[in-house]
Design goal:
143 residues; alpha/beta; 5-stranded mixed sheet; 36% helix; globular
Length: 143
């Protein structure tokens, strides 16, 4: 479990280093095989939909139905809804929104809905786990 979250944090670091917000995601199938990775690319692409989780879904080689999304940070409502539509079965995240939001340092839009609340408002049987303590998960927001 921790290896996938550590990889998501490394992807977040890569996103930050290229000028985007520090978010990364990995998608695995039920056997634990990596299907795709994603990085936030909103700033560098100009596409407001270019969040790490949606990038990973778009990069997947085939369907992600039944898979797990491992995210460096708690998925936003847009990404949580996207994962409902993609058919994932599980979302695991390292840093909670309440912990990384103060570190973002800007006046961008904010939601009070958590990932788990968005998922609970759907009829999708998705398990949400997090925050899971992972080395460096909040550090990427400080650099």
């Amino acid at each position: 479990m921790t290896a996938f979250l550590l990889r998501a944090v490394e992807l977040a670091r890569q996103a930050r280093d290229r000028g985007d917000r520090p978010f990364g995601a990995v998608i695995t199938d039920v056997a634990g095989n990596v299907l795709a990775e994603g990085r936030n690319g909103v700033t560098t692409s100009g596409d407001i939909r270019a969040h790490a989780e949606l990038d990973a879904v778009a990069n997947a080689r085939g369907p992600v139905t039944g898979g797990t999304v491992w995210a460096s940070g708690e998925p936003c409502p847009m990404c949580a809804a996207g994962m409902v539509w993609a058919g994932v079965s599980r979302i695991v995240f390292a840093a909670a929104t309440r912990d990384f939001t103060p570190l973002l340092g800007d006046d961008g839009p904010r939601f009070t809905l958590t990932c788990a609340e968005v998922i609970a408002a759907s009829n999708a049987p998705i398990v949400v786990e997090g925050p899971v303590p992972v080395t460096g998960a909040l550090d990427v927001f400080r650099a």
